[in-house]
Amino acid sequence: MSSSTAQRIIHLGVFLDVSGHYASAWRHPSTQAGRFLDLSYYKQLAGLAEQGKLDMVFLSDRYGIPDVYGNRFDATVRSISSSSAKLDPVTLITAIAAITERIGIAATSSTSFTEPFLTARQFATIDHLSGGRAGWNVVTSTSDNEARNFSRDRLLDHEARYERAQEFIEAVTGLWDSWEDGALLLDKAGGVFADAAKIHYAHYQGNYFQVRGPLDVPRSPQGRPVIIQAGSSEAGRDFAARFAEVIFTAQPTLQSAQSFYADMKRRAAAKGRSPEQVKIMPGVMPIVAESEAEARKIEASLSELVDPLAGLALLSDQINYDLSVHPLDEPLPELQTVTGMQSRLQLVSKMLQTERLTLRELGRFYAGSRMHRKAVGSPEQVADFMEEWFTGGACDGFNLMFPIVPDSMEQFIRLVVPELQRRGLFRTEYTGRTLREHLGLPRP
Amino acid sequence: MSSSTAQRIIHLGVFLDVSGHYASAWRHPSTQAGRFLDLSYYKQLAGLAEQGKLDMVFLSDRYGIPDVYGNRFDATVRSISSSSAKLDPVTLITAIAAITERIGIAATSSTSFTEPFLTARQFATIDHLSGGRAGWNVVTSTSDNEARNFSRDRLLDHEARYERAQEFIEAVTGLWDSWEDGALLLDKAGGVFADAAKIHYAHYQGNYFQVRGPLDVPRSPQGRPVIIQAGSSEAGRDFAARFAEVIFTAQPTLQSAQSFYADMKRRAAAKGRSPEQVKIMPGVMPIVAESEAEARKIEASLSELVDPLAGLALLSDQINYDLSVHPLDEPLPELQTVTGMQSRLQLVSKMLQTERLTLRELGRFYAGSRMHRKAVGSPEQVADFMEEWFTGGACDGFNLMFPIVPDSMEQFIRLVVPELQRRGLFRTEYTGRTLREHLGLPRP
User: Fold this and answer.
1) Nearest-angstrom CA–CA distance, A76 and A249
2) What are the coiled-coil residue ranges (chains A, B) (predicted)?
3) Which of A7, A123, B81, B205 could form a disulfide with A225 if both were Cys (CB 3.0 to 4.6 A apart)?
4) In chain B, which residues have their Cβ closer than 8 Å to the Cβ of A63?
5) What number is the ipTM of this complex?
6) CA dist A393 → A236, A261, B287 (Å)
7) What is the CATH T-level fold of the domain A11-439, as seen in this structure?
8) Chain centroid, CA A251 distance in Å
9) Which residue in chain A is spatially nearest to B304 when comparing CA positions?
10) Do A79 and B191 touch (CB under 8 A)?
C-alpha cells in the first residue's frame, strides 16, 4: 500500500476532449460545447486534471474537417463537435503550459505536413516554457482529405509515410541534441554568450529531409520532449518500438491488450531499448458513478443522443474509406485494404465477426468509444478493471477518454483516483517536475 | 490636447528583444540575458508594455543560427545573444497571450518554410485564445542558411519568394474566411453543432499552393489577425501595399521616412485600399534618460561593449552575403546585387557614401540600431522627435527597439509615454479590446 516512488504506479493521461469523447457529448445538457474557444475553459479542465495528479493532458489532431463520408462535411459539422471545430493543438498546449504548474502537456503533430525544424523548435520551446512538461504525439496522418490542405491529392502510401516519419523524427532529435547541456555561458565580462564548441550542426541527410541545424533553441529541460506514438500496424509497431516512450493504443479486451503489451516490450528490447522505457497506455473510456446502475444510465443517455452517421463519418475518416456507398441497414461487407488507419479497420472487422451489426448500428456503436475499451460501473469496479489490466501485464497506465466533459472527469477524479491511491496504485502528490519524471522515463 | 478616440494617435509596438536591440546588450550589467527561456520574464516584459498601454509586442524570426559571416556561427554565438538562442516566436506569443489581458501580440512567420493551412490555424487559434489580439508579421526570409534547415540549398530568388508569399497569404485569408460569422449553432436539442451552409471550401489553386479547406477553426474575433509586413524593396512595397495593415520599415531620416510614407499610402490607394488602413511604423531605438547627457552616456557604454564582428555577422546574414571576405580595416567595396534583404544593403550603401567607415567601424555601427533611427535624449527630446515624425507625414507610429531591456523599456514607459499623453498624442487607457481596435483598423 506504500506509494513510494520505487513502486510501479499507473500512469494516467487525459485525452482532452472539449465536451467528451462520445461524438454526441456536446448535446448532453451538462456540457459547455460553446466554450471550446475560451482559454478559461482549458484552464478549468487542465486545472482539474492537475488537481487529480494525472500525468498529462493530451490533444489529438487531424488537419481539416473530415469529409470522407459521402464526400462532404455535412454529417461531421452537424454532429461531431470535436472534428468540426477546434483550436490548433500545439498552439493550445502552449497556452495550457502557461497557465498550469505540474501536469504534462502533449499534443499531436504530423510528420506528413510540416518540417522537422519547425516541430523541433516548437516542442523545445514548449518544453522550456513549461519547465520540462512537453510531449509530442507523432502521427503520420491517415486521410487524403488532410493531404488536400497541403497541396497534395493524396497521402503518401502507408510504408512511405512511415519512412518519412522515421526521417522526420531522426532530424528532430538531431536538432534537439545540437546544443550540448552547458553550451550557454552567459559570460558578460569575457563577452562570450555561448560556447561554439558545444553547439553542433545536425547535418541530417535523408531522402525526404536534409536539415543542417543547429537548432536556435538551447537544449530543453527534458533533453528531449517525450515521444508518444500510436501506430498499431506492423510499420507502426516497428516505428513505436524504435522511437516511442509512450504508446497509445486501442485495445478492446484484456487478452488483446496483454498480447500487444508483450509484443511491444519484446520489440523495444529487440531494438536495444529497456522495456521499462516504453510506457503502454491503452485508451479507456471510464463511465463511472456512485453505483453501476447509475453509470449504465449515463451510458444509455449518451447513446440516445448519438447520430449514427456521426460514427460512420468518424470511421470513414479514420480508415480513409467512404462508408456511405454501403446500405445503412445491412452488414458491412468485407473491405479491401484501406489506405488510412489499418489497425482500426482490423479491430472493427474482428468485432463484426462476433457481433452482427448493420452499418447503422455500427455507426451508433463507433460514435461512442471508437473501439477503445469502456469501463462502466462504480468507482470500485472501474478501479478493479484498471488494477486488473495494470497488474495483469496489459498496460503501464491509461489514456483516459472521458465520455462527458467536465462531468466524467470530475467524477473520475473525485471517485476513482482516491480509490487507486488507497490501493497504492497511483501517486498522492507529484514527486517530479517534468513529464519524464512523472512517467519514470530517463532524460536522454 | 484631448485624447478622444476620434483623434489620430501614435501607435506603438515593442520589438521584444530579450536583452535589448544592441547586439551587445546582453553584456550590459543591468540585463538578465539568462532569463530568455523563462516564461516569467516575458510576463514581466509584456506586463510592462501593457502597463504603458502600448499597442502590441512583436517578435521577429529567423530560422536557425546565422553563419553567413565566414561560413561559421562562431561570431554569432559568441556575441549575439538574440540570434543564437531564442524561443520559437509563434509559440512564445501564444504563451504571452495566455498571461496578458489587453496588449496586441504579433509574431513573424515565414511564407518560405511552412504551409498556409498551419499558419492560418496557428494565428486563428492565437486570435481566439487572446480575445482578438493576434498579428502576423509576414516575411519571405532572406538567408540561404535558413533554407538549409528546410531541405533546400538556397532560397527561391527574390521575385519567386514574393510570388510564393502572395499565394501563401491568399490561401491563408481564404481559410480564415471559410467559416462565416454565425456558422456555429450549438443547437443541442436539434442536434446541429454547426451550419454546413455557412462553412465553405477555400479551393485555393495557385502554382505553389493548392489548399482546399475549410479551416477547422471558426472565424476568429478579429475576422482575420492583423497582417504586418516589412518589405521595402520594389516587390516588397507592392506586396505590402496590397496586403499589409501595419508596415515596419527602417528609415534613418525624416526625409526618407516621409518619402516612404507617401509612397506606401499612394500605393495602397492605387490598390483600392483606404490609406488609413495601412499603418506605417518605422523602427526607432529610443535611448532616453532624465537628461540628454545621461542618455549619451548610456549610448556610449553600449557601443563600448560591441564586438564589431557581431555587427558584420548580423549584416552578412541579412543581406545573405559573406562580408568576411573583405579586409576589416578598409572601406567596403561596392557590392553586386545580393540575394538577401536588398533594401538593407541600399541603406548601408547610401550611408557609406557620406560616412567613410572601415568595415570594422561599419560592424560596430551596425550592431547598434541596424540602420534604424536612434532617438537619443531627454524625455522631451524623444517626444519631440516622435511628434515631428508623426505630425510631419513620416509615420503613424513606431516599432520601438529598446537598446537595453528591461531598463530602456521601463524608462520609456516612465518618462516618454506620459509626455506623449500630455501632448494628446497617445492613449491614457486602452479603449478597445482587439489589436484591430488598438490600431484603428476595421474588422474584415
Assistant:
1) 24
2) none
3) A123
4) 117, 216
5) 0.96
6) 21, 7, 66
7) TIM Barrel (3.20.20)
8) 14
9) A191
10) yes
